[in-house]
Amino acid sequence: MNREQAEQEVRRLADAWTAAELRGDTAFLEQTLTEDFIGIGPLGFLLTKQEWLERHRSSELKYNVHTLDEVKVRGYDEAAILVGRLTQEATYRGNPVNTQMRTTLVFVCQDGQWHLAGLHFCNIGQPPPFARS
Predict the structure, then answer these.
(1) Most-buried pick from 22, 26, 73, 99 (CB within 10 A)?
(2) Do 70 and 85 meet the contact criterion of CB atoms below 8 Å apart?
(3) pLDDT of residue 71 exceeding 90
(4) Cβ–Cβ under 8 Å, residues 121 and 106
(5) CA 49/CA 52 separation, integer angstroms
(6) Closest CA to 103 of 21, 1, 4, 2
(7) What are the chain's domains?
(8) Which residues pair with 62 in a beta bridge?
(9) Region class of 77: left (phi > 0), else alpha (psi between -120 and 50), else beta
């Protein structure tokens, strides 16, 4: 598989992941996340694969909107890095969590299949006053 094909497959998987998160599709997520998956939230907390899945299983997390755009993918031999913007409208334990975040998704190819090995979210903010022109 050439780099362009790999990048297209990763884009398709990222779209499927986004849709699965919106639906709370833990069966898809279970298959897609690597066993050593780590999710890093916008405040720096870490979630293992099981902790990530539990957010959906417990019904504490509910998405109304979960979209990924401004996507750029860089493919490597057995890995790919996706950088994009994630927009979400959600509730966690009844509290609203509506935000736009910059995200980095790390994909790895294992046994000919792409999987999500990790992700990192960072809230999108404005530059500090001293950095504005």
Answers:
(1) 73
(2) yes
(3) yes
(4) no
(5) 5
(6) 21
(7) 3-125 (3.10.450.50)
(8) 91
(9) alpha
Which residues touch 125 (CB under 8 Å, ≥6 apart)?
A: none
pLDDT digits (tens, 9 = 90+) for 36-45: 999 999 899 9
pTM: 0.90
Rounded alpha-carbon distances, angstroms, from residue 122 to 7, 8, 62:
23, 24, 20
Q: What is the DSSP letter of 126?
A: P
